[in-house]
Design brief:
alpha/beta; Rossmann fold; Dihydrodipicolinate Reductase, domain 2; 2 domains; 7-stranded mixed β-sheet; 12 helices; 33% helix; globular; disordered N terminus; disordered C terminus
Length: 348
């Protein structure tokens, strides 16, 4: 990892007027960041910019001049405008062209593969591209952590149990996740299965069934751990209603307390070549709070110059210690446990 010192580091947040974007801007203010906001809706942006006392830019993702003007003098871009299938490539290309680090909070595996394809161009531009700086700021370092508990990791399974509501952008992104198909990594290669059985994971209250879902660890955690066989699963607790539009304006206080009765959880199981198994679990706040904290934490690190050029995952650049920076995250480890990882070996 390289630390590059820059004077007056600045951040541009694109998509700031959306639900998650507003929460992220509130956290950015709390962290004392210098930033400007951008997006397509001039009325919403102008009101938010006045509220935050920051500059703003109005342009579509296809407007190259808009990108050039708004990225001038910036160190990093935080793209929070989903669905990312409609915004990520244009934003990544703009960052490469203008030599600005790129961060997004996408949960779409195809966007992670897109980021991976930009690796060489990003290296030549001297910038870092991190896609998935929401969920994967906890998920990916947890995978790195679990892999470190065994000597020769050969297989990884992860399961994410989500509790909370969904924004319109997340709902649109979820269609792209489903359309990606049943992807697993086998012997280092991404393959698409025609069918897959559910698998059981213990999030703390006994085994629970989860469905094979391409969350993105097959790309990002492969980058961070090098483990050649990866499966990932998902379970959703019943969603809650999102706050009212009025409550979205100033939601900072809500980020620092549990918004839902249930916690979100991640379980990572790593199989060693000798047959031993390490299981690591985390519990975290439900809803969008983890994404907000995570995205701003990664932005802070890029602004401070802690980067690796090219395509990176949160775990590949910041390692398992990134978990220590996240609030309200509880980690539990079990080593040499007989795990359900062996029950679905036929998948990979």
């Amino acid at each position: 990892m390289t630390q590059i010192k820059k004077e007056a580091s600045r951040l541009l947040i694109y998509g700031a007027a959306g639900y998650t974007g507003r929460l992220i801007t509130q956290e950015a203010v709390k962290r004392g960041l210098q930033f400007e906001i951008a997006g397509r809706d001039e009325k919403e942006l102008a009101e938010l910019a006045k509220e935050l006392n920051v500059g703003y830019h109005v342009f579509s993702v296809d407007d190259q001049k808009g990108w050039q003007s708004s990225l001038s003098g910036k160190t990093s871009l935080l793209n929070v405008a989903g669905p990312f299938s409609a915004t990520a490539e244009q934003a990544m290309n703009a960052c490469i062209e203008n030599k600005v680090h790129y961060i997004d909070i996408s949960a779409e595996i195809d966007i992670y593969r897109l980021a991976e394809s930009k690796d060489q161009a990003a290296k030549e531009a001297g910038i870092m591209i991190i896609s998935g700086a929401g969920l994967f700021v906890s998920y990916d370092p947890l995978a790195v952590h679990a892999a470190s508990l065994v000597d020769n990791p050969v297989r990884l399974r992860a399961a994410f149990k989500y509790s909370g509501g969904f924004t319109p952008g997340s709902i649109a992104s979820s269609a792209n996740i489903v359309n990606a198909g049943l992807l697993v990594r086998k012997d280092g290669n991404l393959i698409k299965l025609t069918q897959a059985e559910s698998a059981s994971f213990d999030f703390g209250n006994g085994p629970e069934d989860c469905m094979l879902t391409p969350l993105g660890g097959t790309v990002l955690s492969y980058k961070s751990t090098g483990i050649k066989n990866i499966e990932e699963y998902f379970q959703m607790a019943l969603p809650k209603d999102l706050p009212s539009s009025e409550a979205l304006k100033i939601a900072d206080a809500e980020l620092h307390k549990a918004q839902y009765e249930e916690k979100s959880s991640i379980v990572v199981e790593v199989l060693d070549a000798d047959g031993s198994i390490a299981i690591s679990k985390i519990e975290m706040q439900a809803g969008y709070a983890p994404t907000v904290f995570s995205a701003v934490e990664v932005a802070v690190r890029t602004l401070d110059g802690f980067i690796k050029t090219g395509f990176q995952s949160p775990g590949s650049v910041y390692g398992e210690k990134l978990l220590n920076a996240l609030p309200n995250v509880l980690i539990t480890d079990i080593v040499n446990n007989v795990s359900s990882i062996l029950d679905t070996a036929h998948l990979i």
